[in-house]
Amino acid sequence: MLELFLSFINKFLGQAPLLLGTVVFIGYMLLGKKWYESLAGFIKTFVGFKILQVGTGGLVGTFRPIITSLSERYGIEAFVIDPYFGQTSATEFLDTVDSLAFVGYVMLIAFAFNIVLVLFRKYTKIRTLFITGHIMYQQSAVLLWAMYWVIEGVGGKSVSPFLIAVVGLLMGTYWSVMSNLIIEATQEVTDGAGFTIGHQQMFGAWVAWKVAGKIGNKEHDVNKVNTPGFLSILNDNVVANALIMTVFVGTIMFILGPETFEYNKTKYFFATYVWETCAYFAVYITILLTGVRMFVAELTASFQGISEKLLSGAVPAVDCAVTFGFSPQAPSYGFIFGFFGQMIAIFTLILLESPVLIIAGFICLFFDNGTLAVFANKAGGRRAAAIIPFVAGLIQVFGSALVLTALRGPEEVIGWMGMFDWATLWAGTTLLTNVAGIIVPILLIPLLLIIPQLQYRRHKETYFTTMRDE
Questions:
Q1: DSSP secondary-structure letter at 424?
Q2: Summary count for the chain: helices (H), strands (E)
Q3: How many Cα atoms sit within 13 Å of 218 on the Cβ side?
Q4: Which end of the chain is more exposed for a tag (fewer CB within 10 A), N or C?
């Protein structure tokens, strides 16, 4: 019996695509869907996850030789600050210790805890349900990797059940508390659209909202300023990823020189080889995104249908990009000034001869700083929309470099999330845990749950009705 049970754990529950597909199948059956519709959901989830693995494998395979060459020549390690490079680091590393499927467990524990906190919102003061599926998976993977490495990472053992439970509860607390924290600000930014942000910079957006009014004037709206038309090409992820990675990775390849790389010199000039190599980043990220969207669409539908039956009236926490339509010029402001901030920070690391070199990633530059600019502009106008992303760019690089000093080592590690919350809250949590152990994430759970209680005290009468911080 024990052998059969262990075989089931390893060959079924231990396979992430099978686990997530089964969750979707069960969710759809509970929603009253026909068996063949539930089966279709299982298949899409399974195939989508396999597509995701092709994309992550391609990113690692393309990036690793370049970074290995750089490290060997100059004695430094380079990492990309981009959510998908962070996710790839997490999933590839966890797979080496037979723990990739546990990401699904963390995600389920976190989502269930979010539901419980909303169910008991009379006491917890949590009003929000985090339903940004691809972010849920991404963050669950990265936090599990980070906590495992600094707590249990020596020896190559699988992640312990206790750590899985702690990470799941902490992740669910973060989703609940931070999406709840930003409700009022999001209502102002979106003119009362009835949702909140569930993404990578919830704490950062709240900070931007609170600080912006002190450094700028909201009457000087960024949307009244004309920006150069050529920036519009950066609205296309494929184009932006190819250009950004060509600028950064291409520069590294030219520094290393053509003799470093094995390529067909009868087919390529070195410059065209560099371009094709860098363009592959856009290819693999597109593949990765396709897989994520496929299986996350099924997960979100199965989760959301159940939650609507159980949690009517809860405020949905959704992707940060939905705010861009309420301030169309702000994301470009955030990208430009965040870029300047990151460049200064990167050159500072080089001048200081840091053992960790950071490479900018498009998603962090555009979506993170773009979101901060939207919130900053609403409360402090174009001055705040420029200053806050610039400072955020500095923080994204320095915070990521600092946490990577504790996480680097395994060859699967090619990057970190880099987004504001991950360069501050989660970078700090990881570094403290590296020093003090598992007590840090355990204590963080009740400490975070104090925040909604403080929010409630500020406006008890309207807290559950208007969602506005009057």
A1: T
A2: 19, 6
A3: 15
A4: N
pTM metric for this prediction: 0.80
pLDDT at 308 over 60: yes
Residue 465 is assigned to a structural domain of this protein: no
Contact indicator for 171, 106 with CB cutoff of 8 Å: yes
Helix (H, G, I), strand (E, B) or coil at 263: coil
- End-to-end alpha-carbon separation of the chain, Å? 61
Beta strands in 266-395 (DSSP E): 315-318, 356-360
Q: Is residue 470 part of a domain?
A: no
Range of the domain at 142: 2-458
The number of angstroms, rounded, from the C-alpha of 319 to the middle of its chain's C-alpha atoms is 11
Phi, psi of 46 (to 5 degrees): -60, -50
pLDDT tens sequence across 407-458:
988 888 989 999 999 999 999 999 999 999 999 999 999 999 999 999 999 8
Give the integer Cα–Cα distance in Å for 300 and 24.
Answer: 9
Q: Give the contacts of 419 (CB within 8 A, at least 6 positions apart).
A: 83, 199, 200, 201, 204, 364, 367, 368, 396
| Residues 91 and 100 sit within 8 Å (Cβ to Cβ) | yes
Separation between Cα atoms, residue 399 and residue 412, nearest integer Å: 20
Total structural domains in the chain?
1
Which residue in 52, 51, 26 sits closest to 39, CA to CA? 26
Looking at this protein, which amino acid is placed at residue 141? A
Residue 464 is assigned to a structural domain of this protein = no
Task: Decide if 463 is inside a domain.
Answer: no
